Amino acid sequence: MTEKDSLHRFIFEDLGIRGEWVKLSNSWQTAKMHQQGPENAKLQLGQALAAVIMLSATIKFNGSIILQAQGDGDFKTLVAQSTHDQKIRGLIRCNDVLPEGSLEAMFGQGRLVITIEPDDAQPYQGIVGLEGKNLASALETYFEQSEQLNTRLWLFANETQAVGLLLQELPSKKTDDANWERIEILADTITEKELLTWDCEQLLFNLFNEDEIRIFDAEPVEFKCSCGRPKIERTLRALGKEELESIIEEQGSIIVGCEFCGEQYGFNNIDIVTLLAEEILALKSDTRH
User: What residues contact 134, with CB distance under 8 A and at least 6 apart?
Assistant: First the structure.
């Protein structure tokens, strides 16, 4: 049975190396359905979603992790987000035609930002230059600079699915250089077709059948947007009373669309009056305390 929309973690029992494998199908289709842009831009989104799921699985926290690539070229913005329980969403902003090639060819001068947002702590951000032949190589640079851990990634996407493989030395157990190099050489023989076709167990057996590997149970992945009316209301309040009233006077209503899922949120004059009244009450309540 073909595995879809799932993440597997695994560990090389005697080598101090861990890994992750992810394959997206339905979640990938839903995520890109809401995005406008050329096909090669959408494929970059697929790779980013596969990557951010694996990144979230390397960190022990409740919250979300956001991968964001920004540049001054034809590809303006790429965002992929995953929660700790593998709920994903993403967006792209780019020109109608996007050149093939390296990250620099697509994004121009840019940067890759990884933001970790725990539910119970301050966000943490890591930034590296958006350089290299692909997203996987840029993320390897990120790990090299921020974590100082040997890390390799393979990311691919086509029209129907997005896949990823990550190998990393365990922080608590320094890997023997010879073992890391051997595993890396074996993994480098994987082709795009094989990674898109094989399931996790088949892939690990075909690549590393001489090593003892423990594969953990599959974790389901699904597309789920975290937008909602309360979040939109907070955004509107931040605009201020004058700006909101000006928009209402000019347009009659305010329509806010979510770029991740396409959901539309409408606010008429009564909604805005209520929104502003609630803010005033909240401010008075805070003042009393």
Answer: 47, 102, 103, 155
Domain boundary among 166, 192, 223: 223
User: pTM to 2 decimals?
Assistant: 0.86
What is the domain range of residue 275? 229-288
As a whole number of angstroms, the distance between CA 104 and CA 132 comes to 7
Task: List, in order, residues 6 or more apart from 262 with CB less than 8 Å away.
Answer: 34
Which H or E run includes 6?
strand 6-12
Contact (CB, 8 A) for 27 and 223: yes
Q: How far apart are CA 222 and CA 105, in angstroms?
A: 31
Residue range 17-73, pLDDT digits in tens: 999 999 999 999 999 888 988 999 999 999 999 999 999 888 788 888 999 999 999
SS3 255: strand
